[in-house]
Design brief:
The chain is mostly beta strands. The protein has helices spanning about 5-10, 95-100, and strands spanning about 10-15, 15-25, 30-40, 50-60, 65-70, 85-90, 110-115, 120-125, 130. The chain has one domain (about 5-40, about 50-135).
């Protein structure tokens, strides 16, 4: 799967999801992003719970780069840290040039995540993406 497919097939893409953590395995060229996906807004809202969120993992295989920009919104101390709501999108050619991102192979995709709390970006490139659990994949490509 590509990141375009991940964005389409998950309930709300990476829009309004929360990054809970990540790890990189350099031996296998794999990036794992622990994400809390926004799934749906409840029809009957209560004061305690207005939305449904599901935790899952986005795994990028064939990792070609992983770049974390420094936060613009500096944390005063670790107690200020909260999971970061984000927005995902395909990295543009303009960003590749302005951020000095490295070249990639012909079969790789580039993707960026904007982290709202940090007011900065994470950029990565890989050759395939997987989502687990697969129940987070709610649409097939090309479906309306």
């Amino acid at each position: 799967m590509t990141m375009e497919e991940v964005e389409y097939r998950t309930p709300n893409g990476l829009h309004d999801a929360y990054l809970k953590g990540f790890s990189v395995d350099y031996e296998t060229a794999t990036l794992s992003l622990e994400i809390e996906w926004f799934v749906e807004v409840l029809q009957e809202k209560t004061a305690e719970q207005e939305s449904i969120w599901k935790r899952g993992t986005l795994v990028i295989k064939g990792l070609e780069y992983f770049v974390i920009e420094p936060p613009r919104n500096a944390l005063k101390d670790l107690s200020d840290f909260a999971p970061d709501q984000m927005q995902g999108y395909g990295t543009t050619d303009r960003e590749v040039a302005s951020k000095g991102l490295p070249g990639v192979s012909d079969n790789a995709f580039r993707h960026s995540l904007y982290l709202g709390y940090w007011e900065s970006f994470i950029h990565f490139a890989g050759t395939s993406a997987e989502v687990s659990p697969t129940e987070l994949l709610v649409r097939e490509m090309g479906a309306e």
